[in-house]
Amino acid sequence: MNTPNEILRINDLKTKFFLEEGTVFAVDGVDISLREKETLAIVGESGSGKSVTALSILKLIQEPTGRITDGEIHYRDRNLLDLSEKEMRKIRGNEISMIFQEPMTSLNPVFTIGKQIREVYKYHQGLNKRAGNRKAAEMLDLVGIPNSEKCIHNYPFQLSGGMRQRVMIAMALACNPRILMADEPTTALDVTIQSQIIKLLMDLKKEMRTAIILITHDLGVVAQLAENVMVMYMGKAVEYGDVKSIFHNPYHPYTKGLLNSIPQINDDHDRLKIIKGIIPSPFKLPAGCKYATRCDDVMDICAKKEPAYQEKENGRKVRCWKYTEGI
Amino acid sequence: MLKFIITRIISVIPILFLVSILVFLMVHFIPGDPVINMLGMEAQPEAIEATRERLGLNKPLHIQYTSFLINILKGDLGTSIRTKKPVIQEIKDKYRYSLILAIGGTLVASVLGVLMGIVSAIKQNKFWDNFLMVISLLSVSTPSFFLALILILIFSLFLGWFPSIGVYSWRHYVLPIFALGTQSIGLIARMTRSAMLDTLNQDYITTAKAKGAPWFQVVFSHALRNAMIPVLTILGLRFGGLLAGSALIEMVFAIPGIGRLMIDAVLTRDYPVIQATVLFISVTFVMINLIVDILYSIVDPRVKC
């Protein structure tokens, strides 16, 4: 059951992919709590399970290769994992919607922008072509596309990357969803367009009632948009907290590593700081803490036993032996 | 859109010119004197001269070509050497039969092939996929004349559902159309399957699902529209193959089509008829591919620009 104001509560979500080489624990026991209008950032490097977490929430994991094997996803009063495909369709794009990383390939090349936005209204509000087009144009205005009346007749290839991402945002927000999941919304765009899109998301956040799950590895974006941050590593949450605490006083060595690798403009080192090593193969995960192989503060116990995800002050959480008392 | 169609139509004109030049030169490429070929070795020199004069073969090539072209535009394709009738009369009905066969064959192949390809793609590596791919392999590798005989055996001789020769009603067309179209079913099924598998893995399919699109819309609207782009090209090319390749089927089912006419004409050295059949088949081929090009631009808006 969700607490008041809590719109999404995920308990112990596990999503696995069954490949020929072995089983990948893409999401391995993640807990998430999202309040209304909250912006939660999920941070981690590629392959940490951020995107799979988002796709799991919409139950869009490609079966039979991938499957949600365990956990609960409580959205308002229902566990999404108990819903039928038909009931899920009413939620997708309507109550929970998603923006993807690649605006170049995420829009269907053979349909007009108008048709692609209109579809959302057709599926969820039963609007016809004319009413749908009018609403689509309104949405395009909202996301700052000039000449929206004309744009609905354009095809994706006629728009730039930034414009396409605006179209994706318009499409995702069309039905005024309760939760918007943005999967690396700025990664594929160049820097000036990135800041425009971030500004747009910030403005929309003020105007709409939507809660946002922002998936990114760009800590700059996190700082601008998010209230809370969850750091993921190899399918597990390793740290959670409000954005200020995470940036000023990170606990987990991985979080520290991520923050340290942001280049500082007044830094006089010649080399960028990095996290040593690479992420382990998903088929050969370390037995203990998954980060032990790359950690600067590694202890004997780290390689042997996985630390628990422990609650700290102010609702912060961390999964690290360093912060576990009585070992 | 209209501009694109007009440009395409205009671009076809030079191709048609080239076709007419090649068809015109055909007679001149044949070894030996065309008039002697026509009249036979024993013909009198006076008769040869007279025929040469009558056919205009003593004039320079470009004059001959001009009058050839003008005659074609007037609908005059010359006179058959064998039957002494105007070629246009000989060819008109026969062309219609072959066109019906080719269109029917293409329709059967595209409808069944595309459906099989879609089912295979959604049921990838499951029973139905394997089953349909075996069927499509069989269909590609069965020669059409052999299939025609088997069809006659089963559906005419044993079951008596469809007649086996002639063209007197729509029922006469059923077996020949299936015999003609079957080879292409497998080809189109395989093309559709791989194109569908490719599009179903695209990001925009995930977007469509995330919008709440029902399964049917995802497959038949979002994926199929994109998958049809490569399939359409094959379809246009196959149509030409079916039109020219219908000769065998016409033989088996005793249909007086253009393919049979062409073979008869070749065997009896009836040059005006050979020219006319080649002209008809080439022009049809060009026209069908023009239509495919236009369809292409409707399916894929990127083509227009």
CATH class of the largest domain in chain B: Mainly Alpha
Q: Indicate the overall shape of chain B.
A: flat
Number of domains of chain B: 2
SS elements, strand count of chain A: 12
Radius of gyration of chain B: 24 Å
CATH architecture level-2 label of the largest domain in chain A: 3-Layer(aba) Sandwich
Portion of residues in beta strands of chain A equals: 15-25%
Mind explaining what this structure looks like?
The complex is a heterodimer of chains A (327) and B (305). Chain A is α/β, with parallel strands linked by helices. Chain A folds into two domains: 6-95 and 175-323, P-loop containing nucleotide triphosphate hydrolases (Rossmann fold), CATH 3.40.50; 105-174, no CATH class. In chain A, 31% of the residues lie in helices and 24% in strands. Chain A contains eleven helices and twelve strands. Chain A has an eight-stranded mixed sheet, with helices on both faces. In chain A, strands 2-1-4-5 form a four-stranded antiparallel sheet, covered by helices on one side. In chain A, helix 4 (113-125) crosses helix 5 and helix 5 (129-142) crosses helix 7 (161-173). The two termini of chain A are 34 Å apart. The model of chain A has no long low-confidence stretch (mean pLDDT 87). Chain B has 305 residues and is mostly helical. Chain B is built from 13 helices and no strands. Chain B has helices at 2-29, 34-39, 45-55, 61-73, 87-122, 127-141, 144-158, 170-200, 203-210, 215-244, 246-252, 258-267, 271-299. In chain B, helix 1 runs antiparallel to helix 13, helix 5 (87-122) runs parallel beside helix 13 (271-299) and helix 12 runs antiparallel to helix 13. The longest helix of chain B is centred in the middle third of the chain and has 36 residues, at 87-122. Chain B is flat. Chain A binds chain B through residues 55, 58, 60, 85, 89-94, 97-98, 100, 102, 105-112, 119-120, 123-124, 155, 157-158, 168, 171, and chain B through 202-204, 206-215, 217, 222, 225-226, 299-302, 305.
